[in-house]
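Case study 2.
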Amino acid sequence: MLKEFGDFIARGNVMDLAVGIIIGAAFTAIVTSLVDDLVNPLIGLVIGGVDFSGVSFGLGEAQFMIGNFINAVIKFLIVAFVVFMLVRSINKLRARMTPKEEAAPEAPAGPSQEELLAEIRDLLKTRA
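Prediction:
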């Protein structure tokens, strides 16, 4: 069982996933800073100085922090865009690195329906 588990862990997909999670966790701090320190102030300038982190409303004793939700959505969109660009770049690189497959030669075209029918007609004429 331990050998099987070791084989599972050593597979490329699992290792790639682990590296992706670790890099993603480290990347979160960068994205958080980007959104909080750069994007939100720019958006605040455009819409009149609103700081999203402070936007909230209360209903009874419940406090709804809409600004935190908006920040999370912005962070998600930035991360999704960066991942999209990364995957797109990797796919282009792979396309350049993989050898092009040669096109298979086309199979010779057989006779058309009209030619087959004419041949059948001629065979029937010779039998009669």
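The first helix runs from residue 2 to 10.
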